[in-house]
Every structure is written in structure tokens, then in C-alpha cells.
Amino acid sequence: MSQEYVIYCDESLDHGKYFSNFYGGVLVRSSDLQQIHSLLLQRKTELNLLKEVKWSKVTGQYLSKYLDLMETFFDLVEADKIKTRIMFTQNSIISKNLRSEQIENEYFLLYYQFVKHSFGLQYSNPSNLLIKVRLYFDDLPDTKEKAANFKAYIASLNSFRQFEDANIKISLDQIAEIKSHDHPILQCLDVVLGSMQFRLNDKHKEKPEGSRVRGKRTIAKDKLYQYISQRIRKIYPNFNIGVSTSRSDIRNVWLHPYRHWLFKPREYEIDLSKTK
């Protein structure tokens, strides 16, 4: 016997005012996948959201529709049908002693850390039955060669001791790039991920040049963020979006339906000029 997890991954905003390198992931058990896909697709159809849903498309005109879709999505998160993880870096935390190849491949190296650690897969299998992992990445923004090398690097997690001990298997042929247009789960992740980079980088305060008030689109996005924040805090009261979610028990990295991870390198220094 075996089980399978399906993980959808996305990224947003290379470099923000205060926070950068946003990565997001959604994990669904394959036994629930078709039901969740159909439910979100049906909800989109009912709301007449027939095109791709994206954070960048949020406007006052579409706000109520996006709020309704996020209600359905977070009902699934709250029920632990969907596990959601967000990872990001803080600009004031400066890596030290990086080699040139680490700097050049920062995007993929951070993505690797996200897949390896953010869901706590090694704590998901107390029965030690075989668990297969299928990974879907929104189109990777680099050359085919670099993307292929990255997928091979992800597949090398099979030799990660903690994955071996937990009987977690990632096959190279189960790692794929996909078009978010065809996957409502990935579209919902884009909205949540976008809302976090929007708020953490104080984009909710922005005003058009020469204006004393915020633009209508900024107000709409802030309202959508506020709803998402409210739903997260329904699960975890006093949730702080700008820090790593606490883990009083290491197994919570797997057990929690929603978590944030402020990634910090092993060696770093603090630049206070880059804090809020």
C-alpha cells in the first residue's frame, strides 16, 4: 500500500521593499485532489471567474468574487484538506560568505529549501507506508537546462536521510512544470502569496503620485488581504505574517494546515537600514 501527496508550488516578487523571494506551496492528498479541483472550478464558474484568477487582477469590480473564492479555499485549509505554506526572506538579513554560484543560483537553491523543509514531510508518515510525492511548479522563469538541473536536484531528496527513514519518495518523472491557467488550486495559491508580499512590503499604503488617498485597486487588494488574514487568524489567533510560525512540537511543521517561514541563512548579519 502507498499514499501520494500532490504539491503545487509558485513564487512571487523577486525583490520587495522589505521582504523578497516569496515562495508558496499547497499540498493536497491525491485521494482528495479531484474533489478539491472540481469544487474550486465549480466555485469559479458560479462566480463567473472564467479566466485565470491572479492577485494582479484584483480590482474593486472583482473584489466580492475573489472574497467568495477565498472563502471556499480557506474552508478547505481550515478542514486540513489543503496545507498551505509561504516562505520569504527579509532584506535586512544579509547572507554572509556566499560563493558566486550560490548567488547565481539563489532562486533555485531557495526553492529547494522550500520543498525540502516547509511541509515537514518527514513527520507525515508515522505508519511508514510508502508515500509518493508529485510536484507541480508554475512555469519556471529560466532556461530549460537550468530547470532540468533543478528538477534533478529536487529528485535527489530521495537520498535525504530523513526522507529515506520516513519512506518518502520523489520520482524525477513526477516533477513537472504546469500552466496555472489549468489549475484552480495554483491560482488560489497565487492570490494568497500575492496578498502576503503586498502587505509585508507595505504596498497597502501606496498612493498614486500627487494623490492624498490610495487608489481603488490598492484599497480592494487591502480588503482582500484583510479577509485572508482574518481566515488565518481564525485558525491561529494572533498569527504574525512576518515571522516563522512557531512550532512548539516539531511535528507541527506537518500537522498545521497553514504556516509561514521567514528563511534565514546559516551565516548572516543585520542591516537595520533595511527594516521598516
Low-pLDDT segments: none
CATH class of the domain at 2-53 and 79-187 and 241-271: Alpha Beta
**Mean pLDDT over the residues:** 94
**Structural class estimated from helices and strands:** alpha/beta
Q: Helix fraction?
A: 25-40%
CATH A-level architecture of the domain at 2-53 and 79-187 and 241-271: 2-Layer Sandwich
Compute the number of strand runs. 8
Strand order, sheet with most strands? 6-5-1-2-3-7
Radius of gyration: 19 Å
Strand fraction equals 15-25%
Give the H and E element order: EEHHEEHHEHHEHHHEE
Stated plainly, the CATH topology of the domain at 2-53 and 79-187 and 241-271 is called Nucleotidyltransferase, domain 5
Q: In whole angstroms, how far apart are the ends?
A: 51 Å
Question: In terms of topology, how is this protein built?
Answer:
Blueprint: E1 2-15, E2 19-29, H1 30-46, H2 63-78, E3 83-90, E4 93-95, H3 100-104, H4 106-117, E5 130-138, H5 144-155, H6 161-165, E6 168-178, H7 184-200, H8 216-235, H9 252-255, E7 258-262, E8 268-270
What keyword list fits this structure?
276 residues; alpha/beta; Nucleotidyltransferase, domain 5; two-stranded antiparallel ribbon; 8 strands; 39% helix; globular
Question: What does the model show?
Answer:
- This protein has 276 residues and is of the alpha/beta class.
- The protein has a domain at 2-53 and 79-187 and 241-271: Nucleotidyltransferase, domain 5 (2-Layer Sandwich), CATH 3.30.420.
- It is built from 9 helices and 8 strands.
- The strands form 2 sheets. A 6-stranded mixed β-sheet has the order 6-5-1-2-3-7, with helices on both faces.
- β1 (2-15) and β2 (19-29) form a beta hairpin.
- α7 (184-200) packs across α8.
